[in-house]
User: Fold this.
Amino acid sequence: MTTAQQTTPPAAVGADPAISVRDLRQSYGDFEAVRGISFDVAPGELFALLGTNGAGKTTTIETLEGFRRPTGGSVRVFGTDPYGQPAELRERMDGVLQHSGVFGELTVAETVDLSRDLAADPRDRAEVLELVDLADKAKVAVRQLSGGQRRRLDLGLAVLSRPEVLFLDEPTTGMDPEARRETWKIIKGLVADGVAILLTTHYLEEAERLADRLAIMHRGEVKVEGVLDDVLVGWGDRIGFRLPGRIRSEELPELPGATVAVGVREGDPWVVYTVNGADTARRAHHAMGPLLSWADQHETTLERLELRSASLEDVFLGIVDEGAADLATA
Ligand SMILES: Nc1ncnc2c1ncn2[C@@H]1O[C@H](COP(=O)(O)OP(=O)(O)OP(=O)(O)O)[C@@H](O)[C@H]1O
Assistant:
């Protein structure tokens, strides 16, 4: 299913978009990395751009930050073309890029001070360090920070000038789960303060937790877009369990209206029945009866049995699989 759903962003009703992308195309030589994508982000909204490696997310962010001129279509930040970072936008937007450019020999405090010197109305150093939980690292050289602490410093530097638009390119990479949750709190606070955020991440849970709306990109195109519930619609319900040791996959029963696939989850052979079509929750529920009867007949227990609706990960993997199938039939 490759329905590029376009929904009206709830936060955008009545508000001019902070970020606007229209049929954006971006090429490197003969290679078209971004192939006509469109989306808006309103003030006080977090839009997550998800996608496979090389899908074109960073290229899109770099274009919005004014580092690249579009090969086709247009991008606007507060109605202004960001190419070359015109003065009227420089104060209003900032970002955390995948590779930060901070100097490793400076201390954390010196690094913050250096950025404060360049900003018109910066937050206090103490406020910045408090915000990203690095107050106790003020005197430590940046090169001595852990990967996750370094990402938090990047975030602190990005929010120091109180931007109205923030680009976050994989901001929690390298963070442990605790640091990631702390960072989510900071990001949520910024959104609540009215900042428009464009986030890319490979952590789907991060998008589920933070995004007001999201898009999944694959090979330069937006494949699905919308609020989470809309994105999940149409991807079916799932019945999953660990493949019993004595059972071969060919022996698994057919269940009405469901397709079966055997893969691997956390190192275990894992069975997934997908129930598609209309009224999937009820039909998936009804499929449980025949499945449990089959298990009884085979005197086997279905370990870690689950019945659930589609997750963002299912949608993501479905899109990637479709891409692979398209290539195979091309
Ligand atoms: N400077 C460049 N010159 C040539 N090709 C490039 C350049 N930068 C990116 N590409 C290519 O463009 C495509 C999109 O890259 P991009 O970095 O935008 O993807 P991404 O979605 O951010 O990927 P990832 O999730 O791996 O960071 C990739 O195929 C990449 O190899």
User: Anything to note?
Assistant: Residues 1-13 have pLDDT under 50 and may be disordered. Residues 28, 31, 33, 51, 53-59 surround adenosine-5'-triphosphate (CB under 6 Å). Residues 38 and 65 are 16 Å apart (CA to CA). The two ends are 17 Å apart (CA to CA).
